Amino acid sequence: MTASPDFGTPASPAPTQLPAAPYPAGAASPGSAADAGSPPSACSAAPVSDAFDTTAFRSVFRRHAAGVAVITAPGARPVGFTATSLTSVSAEPPMVSFGISTTGSTWPTVADVAYVGIHILGEHQEDLAATFARSGADRFAPPTAWGPGPYGVPLLEDVSAWLVARVVARIPAGDHRVVIAQAVAGAPDGPARPLLYHQGRFNALRH
Q1: Tens digit of pLDDT per residue, the chain (207 long)?
Q2: Do 183 and 95 meet the contact criterion of CB atoms below 8 Å apart?
Q3: How would you label 66-77 residue by residue, b for 16+ Cβ within 10 Å and e otherwise?
Q4: What is the DSSP secondary-structure string of 150-191?
Q5: Could you write out the three-class secondary structure of 102-153?
Q6: Helix (H) / strand (E) containing 72
């Protein structure tokens, strides 16, 4: 079981071509014999390319332990998905960001809503995280416990913390969108120990 994919592949910047610069007479230019004893830098060891294998990219991020959140949105039927890309962006005003796949079933609703719910999951909620990551699941059916919150946003119960946030931007990023939202309500009242996602599975925090 893996969490719903929730990050886009950033494009690598194109290499910059610097114009040749004149050097004073007698001065050694970069790459001249005067530099022969200097070890090559890591940046110059291999040519830069915009192409990068997506399998390798995913493998890199499998080693990155991340907190687990569930994003919800109101609609004719509530929608939600498991995300590991939630990030605090700003404290003044309080803003967050998260990534969402444009090919997922949740995107058409999130693309239009004004407000979303953001839930930080506790270590006891691995099953809930798996439910909201599972394609085709009825994510709000029992045993999922939830109710309507501010602005009609579906709020999950017994989470570590929650926010309701107003969407202010949806930024294209590869096959995803980065959603920026400003918090308008929330509370950190639940269990404090977080659920983590690492190496393709959910984990508890270990000391």
Answers
A1: 434 444 333 333 343 333 344 334 444 444 433 444 444 444 445 566 677 877 777 777 666 668 899 999 999 999 999 999 999 999 999 999 999 999 999 999 999 999 999 999 999 999 999 999 998 889 999 999 999 999 999 999 999 999 999 999 999 999 999 999 999 999 998 877 899 877 667 777 776
A2: yes
A3: bbbbbbbbbeee
A4: GGG-EEESS-SEEEEEEEEEEEEETTEEEEEEEEEEEE--S-
A5: CCCCCHHHHCCCCEEEEEECECCCHHHHHHHHCCCCCCCCCCCCEEECHHHC
A6: strand 69-73
What secondary structure letter does DSSP report for 207? Answer: -
Which of the following CATH numbers is that of domain 67-199: 1.20.1440.230, 3.90.1150.10, 2.30.110.10, 3.30.40.230? 2.30.110.10
- Domain range summary for the chain, segments of one domain joined by +: 67-199
Q: How far apart are CA 161 and CA 193, in angstroms?
A: 11
